[in-house]
Amino acid sequence: MQTMTPLEINPPFLADKPRSISAIFDKARTYNKKHPDQLKADGLYLYMRKLESSSESRVIVNGRELLMFGSNNYLGLTTHPKVKQAAMKAIEMFGVGAGSVRLLGGTFGLHEELEQRIAQFKGTEAAIAYSSGYVSNLATISTLLSKQSDIAIIDERIHASLLDGLRFGQIPFRVFDHNDMTDLDAKLASSVDKGSLTIIVDGVYSMDGDVANLPEIYKLAQKYKALVLIDDAHATGVMGPKGRGTAEYFGLHGKIDIVMGTLSKGLGGIGGFAAGPADIIDFLKHTARGFVFSAALPPSTCAALIAGMDVIENEPEWLIRLHENANLMRKGLQQLGFNIGQSCSAVIPVIVGEDLTAYQLTRALHALGIYVSPVAFPAVRKGTARVRVSVMATHSTEDILKALSAFEKARTMIPAPAPEPAPKEIDQKVA
Ligand code: PMP
What we know:
Blueprint: H1 6-9, H2 18-34, H3 36-41, E1 58-61, E2 64-68, H4 81-94, H5 102-106, H6 109-122, E3 126-130, H7 133-144, E4 150-155, H8 160-168, E5 173-176, H9 181-191, E6 196-202, H10 214-224, E7 227-231, H11 246-249, E8 258-262, E9 272-276, H12 278-287, H13 289-292, H14 299-314, H15 317-335, E10 347-353, H16 355-367, E11 370-371, E12 373-375, E13 385-390, H17 397-410
Parallel strand pairs: 2-11, 4-5, 4-6, 6-7, 7-8
Antiparallel strand pairs: 1-2, 3-9, 8-9, 10-13, 12-13
This protein binds 4'-deoxy-4'-aminopyridoxal-5'-phosphate.
């Protein structure tokens, strides 16, 4: 077989740089060998399992039905009949895309209506819709904060997209211990004379399912005149009596400066948002690069999301059911002796320690008909790998009980950890 040199496979304008290109590709190939390829060889690759059905409480994988506990479609809105109908109607009217960025040729009435509904839902003056939650966090933070004059004080477990926003904007930041209000107070106190302060937290932490101590954060923000910016990705549609998020859960609805989040989890579609004062949102709409230079959400997605918000308002039974299911799952896992950390939401981590154990437990559960997700380093700290369980309103009580008995059985299916290697005898001649 003829082997190709980099010069032959690369376009002519790269011909003088073959070494650096092959180094770039080498890095990727080395990573693959060490990570996904190794997991595949060990029969432990459980990422990107192909769904042959919609992402509901039951899914089809490889022709087999599994109970789905790995989806963030918390309220089941992704396939709610009224939501689907609204999307189909909008596709009939407007087609499948917006055709442009919002500023130039892509703004539809449905975009404006969606943003008004988000603002109403979050108790703010206005909102901006982005193409994803990731983009929302990246664009909002990097645009709003300034590297010259601001300092962000962030919880150590905030989502990667918030951190990427700080990095992209080169915003100085200091980290406080997870949900530790004494440490937050100390970090604020020692930063107060160095710039304008912004506290950045998740509402519900995506890998832990616990909730930011918003009442204390709010008090500290007042004490130090700091802005509060919260990512409500896993709380929107889920937390609070009406599903309006973490602020509503704590009786602080409408009091948080900027609330961001995704439209892809509780709200069942795709997209992200930031909600806050009208003039700030207007500024973002004209300057946030992730908005200005990126195509608008399809009108059909907006219609689906608006219909989803109608369902949340008019069918409160879904939210009630979600919490009944999550409570049952949390209690059951604890009774079985699993460590679920401080979870008090629909996200329930089963913390097992080693990455390998998380993969093995996920594989055992998959074999027993339960779909959960393994979460390993670097998504979580070393030694805190977990199986992430997310509960949906559309699970039945029987589904939850089945999952619990599968967990009980699955732990007996994990191979015992390999014995520690015996300490090597010291070679006296060398020592
Ligand atoms: N914030 C948090 C806390 C998340 O968990 C996620 C998604 N995993 C995002 C933001 C990004 O949202 P999206 O998937 O819509 O980009």
